[in-house]
């Protein structure tokens, strides 16, 4: 059984909470005591139906205001897969939350109300999904019951959205007509949509092929921690020196020739160790410890790759940045802390090329700063070289966060476009 | 772990993620500590720590906030496991906090030391200058937890501000703090109760005996079965009876309920949990029942 991480975007009005509630309920991930608590609250408030959105609103402020503020993580499993849902609020003021939820997602579900069609926010959700390179996008056309399960209406929405998506980096796009309230095409195929030849949403989630989404070509092993036991009682461990980390790309095997950055020195992998014994291969997302045949001075923040396939060694990067600070703005000359893979340094914003309107994709080149939830293209100068790939090639070696040096808050998320 | 198509099972993915988180903490903080209560989640967390740094020993101490109201089987297990690993165990005692006048013991039949633990925990963090504190909490446990970060920032008062959390993207964790502040780290954030049990089975890890079915003298209070013990303050109107029970969570004797169960092996426990329709906290924790936002409120104050 593997794991599928997916993000859902949409507002309460789109029936997002109802859809999640239904997936959780039908897969028996909602427990009686949770349902009772929701029923009790619904009754206390005089709501006639059991408000499943209460299941996903965790914080007091959210329940009081009837909104979702933050990313909430939900879990359910079927015999085929374990699912992790990043439930993100849909409103524009929560763009940062959607970006956060999408950063780790294998798939995103964007909900559209069949009556309203493709709205500004649907386009925004699809754009963010594409910007974050979520490999699979599902457009769930919800509330089909309110348009008499009309094939014509569904096709209209499909055509309009397909035309828009052509402008984005969407590689896998699936349309599913559903009614979250009545369960049509959510868990099983509905008799109300005989014209629909595809699978139910849950069937799609269970079967969508994600194994190829990882980069198994470019070997990338950022060194996270150096393991040196210094064990006085076990002479066999006295000279042990292992480089611990998680594989971010490619397949590593004992005997492979590898290149160390920043030194540029080469060596061979002598063994790949784990607590459960040595392994013959390591690939994403395994956490392992690598030993090399030669003694090279290697520390946290360094990169192990292949001599003929290296990341860019860059101190100047071009990136799309989503700004997440309520207090500060991003503008040229802003100085920040940057964390990329296992390396932390300081970064200077050299230039803001444009601000992107997340609704229209219009580029505003006159923009002088980015405020909360705004996205723009920037040039950064970094105090020390980073070992980077284009975000499109590898999300883990192409993504970084920006930290405010005064408040220590995480204020930006960046995706590397190209590097020099 | 190895398959020719490079797919990875859910337990291997969760384990790899948790190991990554632990190594990140060991690399970026000066004085981390791992909260170890002898409960199943902290047992799994300790195994992950063993794996993350092997063949080196775990590079941080363990800490238990001991209310003095713990099951003796669990305390025995705690001490044995720490000794096996050669780990340093810090025990922060709620009784000491009471004796020092830092907290006042609750009175009445439902008196519990659950809430008092927060002061003891925060005092210990301050005394030992811990800057990162590993906890075994999972997001599937409770709805306030569903929104908590893996690296959860606490200010100098140990408080959690749910509306002002640091965004967490990819596998990049922001470890920046000032002196006096700390980060609570939850490596098992993405695990479910069933994942924890599947992992215990796969790894063949020993667990305290009270998780398995055993005969115990209990009585019923608020729909829960509590152990007949001085700290549960059983009243004359609460008749005691003997039955076969097990514990689904391990907390204080005063507020942790047993469930009627005949599950005597890990396999039987997994079968039972897969079929159950009530959450572990709903079934067994009086501390979460006091209000809808009970957990959120305690967490804001600095609870685990």
UniProtKB/TrEMBL annotation, chain A:
Pfam families: GTP-eEF1A_C, GTP_EFTU. InterPro entries: CysN_GTP-bd, CysN_II, CysN_NoDQ_III, G_TR_CS, GTP-eEF1A_C, P-loop_NTPase, Small_GTP-bd, SO4_adenylTrfase_lsu. Keywords: ATP-binding, GTP-binding, Nucleotide-binding, Nucleotidyltransferase, Transferase. Residues 1-230 form the Tr-type G domain. It catalyses: sulfate + ATP + H(+) = adenosine 5'-phosphosulfate + diphosphate. Its EC number is 2.7.7.4. It comes from the Bacteria. GTP binds at residues 10-17, 87-91, 142-145. GO terms for molecular function: ATP binding; GTP binding; GTPase activity; sulfate adenylyltransferase (ATP) activity. The keyword GTP-binding applies. Transmembrane segments: none annotated. Pathway: Sulfur metabolism; hydrogen sulfide biosynthesis; sulfite from sulfate: step 1/3. GO terms for biological process: hydrogen sulfide biosynthetic process; sulfate assimilation. NCBIfam families: CysN, PRK05124.1, small_GTP. Belongs to the TRAFAC class translation factor GTPase superfamily. Classic translation factor GTPase family. CysN/NodQ subfamily. With CysD forms the ATP sulfurylase (ATPS) that catalyzes the adenylation of sulfate producing adenosine 5'-phosphosulfate (APS) and diphosphate, the first enzymatic step in sulfur assimilation pathway. APS synthesis involves the formation of a high-energy phosphoric-sulfuric acid anhydride bond driven by GTP hydrolysis by CysN coupled to ATP hydrolysis by CysD. Heterodimer composed of CysD, the smaller subunit, and CysN. This is Sulfate adenylyltransferase subunit 1. The gene is cysN.
UniProtKB/TrEMBL annotation, chain B:
Signal peptide: none annotated. Pfam families: PAPS_reduct. Keywords: ATP-binding, Nucleotide-binding, Nucleotidyltransferase, Transferase. It comes from the Bacteria. GO terms for biological process: sulfate assimilation. Residues 280-304 are annotated as: Disordered. SUPFAM superfamilies: Adenine nucleotide alpha hydrolases-like (SSF52402). It is an enzyme of class 2 (transferase). PANTHER family: SULFATE ADENYLYLTRANSFERASE SUBUNIT 2. Heterodimer composed of CysD, the smaller subunit, and CysNC. This is Sulfate adenylyltransferase subunit 2. It comes from Sinosporangium siamense. The gene is cysD.
